[in-house]
Amino acid sequence: MSAILVGVDGSDAATAAVRFAADAAVREGVGLKLVGVYDASTSNYAPGLIIPQEVVDAIRQDAGDAVRAAAEVAKEVAPDLPISTSIAEGDAARVLLELGKDTTAIVLGTRGLGSVKGLFLGSVSTTVAAHSHGRVVVVTGPGGDGPVVVGIDDSPVSDVAIAEAFRQASVRNTKLVAVHTWAPLDVDALHGYGVAPDEIERVSQEAVEAIAERLAGHHADFPDVVVERVVVPEEPAKAILDTAGEDAQLIVVGSRGRGGFTGLLLGSTSQKLLHQSPVPVLVVRD
After folding, report:
1. Name one GO molecular function term (predicted).
2. For the whole model, what pTM was predicted?
3. 268-276 vs 236-244: helix axis angle to the nearest 10?
4. What is the pLDDT, as a whole number, of residue 191?
5. Which domains does the chain have, with CATH numbers?
6. Is 187 buried (19+), middle (13-18) or exposed (0-12) by CB count in 10 A?
7. Looking at per-residue confidence, does 257 or 48 come out higher?
């Protein structure tokens, strides 16, 4: 059975991810796969250090406890949901990316999942979102019962994000708000450069028409979804965040991945959303 994968470590952030994922699994008719990842190896800062076996056992036990607690949380949200649990040893991001290849999505919180309990070694969620070839949801906040918000532009990955956003709006029985920004300057700045208000209105209307055409093909596949278009001369991440507020159920954004484990693999808009959004963010790849 298809399943949504959740990385858990006993943190509040991971618990929030479990709650979101359990609800999403019910909506999508799939199971839930909970995994606790632990790493008892030493870092490059302490080469040759031998970790006592009792410490290794304690770390493994903590991972198992976290998974069992997460399963109880998931059952509270969805008592009849099929749930599988496991623990795995290794680098958290790499393990989750490997296990995520056989799942419909990966869901993560924004903290935790470091190599040693209580030690934050970097953003696993950002790394997974950057390198996964599937859907990744980073639960940056609880969200509300409002719309699904998608950021769109004229790139190919935008079509992938639009399709996923329509699907999410349909399964969540809510409207879709499509946000497009046509200039990274605000209106006052444009006026200051001698751009007349009627010219701003003309460009904005052209953008509205272009977005309507881009959405039309997807709307035909989800006729039940009500679509609202927001076109503003604003920096993309700010426009999306302002539109979503704290009421949106989900923000959907596309990401252009290049593969590998080096370099910047998330665009600036995706990065800002993952760090600033008060609602869950779903990253899809082209």
Report:
1. ATP binding
2. 0.85
3. 30
4. 54
5. 3-138 (3.40.50.620), 148-285 (3.40.50.12370)
6. middle
7. 48
